Amino acid sequence: MSNNKIKPSLQNPLAEKHQVDFNIPGEIAGKAGAYEEVMREGYELIERPVKSVSVAQIEKQHFKKRMTVWERINFLTSHEPNILFQNWGKNLDGASLVTGILNINGRDVAVYGHDFTVRAGSIDATNGQKLARLMYMAGEKGIPLIGMNDSAGAFVPAGVGGLDGYAEAFTALRKISGVIPTIMCMFGFNAGGGSYLPRQGSFVIQPEDTFFGLTGPGVVKSVLGEDISPEDLGGPKVHAASGVTDLTVSDEMAALRTAIRLLSYIPDNNHSMAPFQETSDPLDRKTWEINTLLKKAFNSPTGFNTPFDVSIVIQQICDHGDYFEIQPTRSREAITAFGRLGGNVVGFVANNSAVSSGQIDCDSALKIARFVRFCNIYNIPLIFMEDTTGFLPGREQEARGIVQAGRSMLDSIVDVRTPRILLILRNAFGGAYASYNNYPTGADLVLALPTTRLAVMGPAGKEFVYKDELRKLRGSIKARIAQGVAERIKAGLDGADAKKDAEKEAAEWLRREEAALNLRYEKELMNPREGLALGSISSLVMPTDLRKVLGENLNFFLRHYKPSAWQGVQREFH
Questions:
Q1: Are 437 and 537 in contact (CB under 8 A)?
Q2: Residues 6+ apart with CB under 8 A from 11
């Protein structure tokens, strides 16, 4: 009995295979000649990469819960694909890679995909060259690129030709980087060049049960003697944590759906705007939920130190609450996302106090830097939301290079040429404020909520502002304890107990006095008043008016912004 699952089909399995007729419709059939023979040979050559693959190979793909490259292409578009560069030799040289132009939701998109059923999708000199040719065409025509990577790497029997093929593709992808956006889907098991190439792209999407990396587990074991699974070596969890992968999904279909959705937020090239989408969500819709969130947080026992999830604020501002987060599982203390405001695509960069008080560490700084740089290159306006107590201090962060990571974030913000707005939600302290899209670093507009606490330092700043008063308070403790001891002994308390009780009372008194100074510091210096007086903040906005104020200002800036390629000097570090 067969173990294969029988699937229902409308096709008759006993029907004869369809024969292509090369006669002109209505023409009286005659004896076939040289013309018909040439037509038949040409048709067979066109169909060869598909027809030469055995059913067993396709079933292997399906058994591993993977689609063939042709199935992936059909999933991306309902239109007939325009397959270009059909240059495959008699040994199917070049057939392991399919390249073409697809119509995806009315937009021309260049697409390539490895055909794992042919030579395990490996690269030889022929298909390396045609991949490079597709990339150059996409760059010249200004259309985005989607890559469907499912490759064992260079084709070993091709010798150095396979390496040359990868080198050509590397070079082409680097040259179109910053000219057109690229989305890379990782399918199957990719190693070596199959990993280097897609990570040159703008975004990488990786489903579960897939691998990509420098080498596979077998090589790691033979070189290092280390047993490790593909999942632990180069699976989606590993790459999502490091930032190598931008988005992780459940399976191939989810990856392709995600690629299509991401495409809707990004422009065709570096001299155009992202697609505008009409919305029925009124721009002046009141954002009452933001008001409720802040009220519950700040009226709680922990008051202004209460963390809250900034993604709720982003959701309430965006059209119909829809936004698309990039690297959603990595460095959650910072959120980077695409959304729409009044139909216009906007990039959101927000500190998230719900995680580590929103402190910026090495990973979140680099996450922000990369996202900001992408938006800057591709004419996407930015809204920054600030609520951070600063950069994360400590030995580990210094050892990992927090100074350089923070500098990368600052550089990306200073370089921004697209419209950009800063909204200070709550905390904006020290160097984090100074490097987070304020007026001196080039912001077009700085807004703040009444909950804003803008200061050089957080509550610890009282040590400098009220230094003399604190010194006097702390210096009086000794005399206060001595007086307390004397009073207790006079009342008949034992000497040791008297001292212990007096010390406790003095400590509690000092805590109350320091708490009062904390409150005084917050009221006098940790508020938006000084920022408004100095012009560091343009105006205050009520939480319920955030969508309207941000949307109207964004529309104003976009009316006076002309999309163009970035013509400035490219700085060394980014």
A1: no
A2: none
pTM: 0.87
- What is the end-to-end Cα distance of the chain in Å, rounded? 61
Residues 524-538 as b or e (16 or more Cβ within 10 Å = b) = ebbbbeebbeeebbb
How many CA atoms, within 13 angstroms, populate the side-chain half-sphere of residue 475?
A: 6
The Cα 252–Cα 209 span in angstroms is 10
Per-residue pLDDT of the chain (574 residues; tens, 9 = 90+): 456 555 666 665 555 556 666 666 766 666 778 888 888 888 888 887 777 788 888 888 898 889 999 999 999 998 999 988 877 776 677 788 999 999 999 999 999 999 888 888 888 888 888 999 999 999 999 999 999 999 887 887 777 878 888 899 999 999 999 999 999 999 999 988 888 899 999 999 999 999 999 888 888 888 888 889 989 999 999 999 999 999 999 999 999 999 999 999 999 999 999 999 999 999 999 999 999 999 999 999 888 889 999 999 999 999 999 999 999 999 999 999 999 999 999 999 999 999 998 999 999 999 999 999 999 999 999 999 999 988 998 999 999 999 999 999 999 999 999 999 999 999 998 888 888 999 999 999 999 999 998 877 666 666 776 788 878 888 888 888 888 888 888 888 888 888 888 888 888 888 888 888 777 777 777 788 888 888 899 999 999 999 999 999 999 999 999 999 988 777 776 5
408: three-class secondary structure by DSSP: helix
Question: Cα dihedral sign for 381, 385, 386, 392?
Answer: negative
Phi, psi angles (nearest 5°) of residue 61: -60, -45
266-290 as b/e, with b when 16 or more CB fall inside 10 Å?
Answer: bbbbbeebbbeeebebebeebbeeb
In sequence order, which residues have a C-beta less than 8 Å from that of residue 363 and are 6 or more positions away? Answer: 243, 330, 331, 405
Quickly count helices (H) and strands (E) in the chain: 22, 17
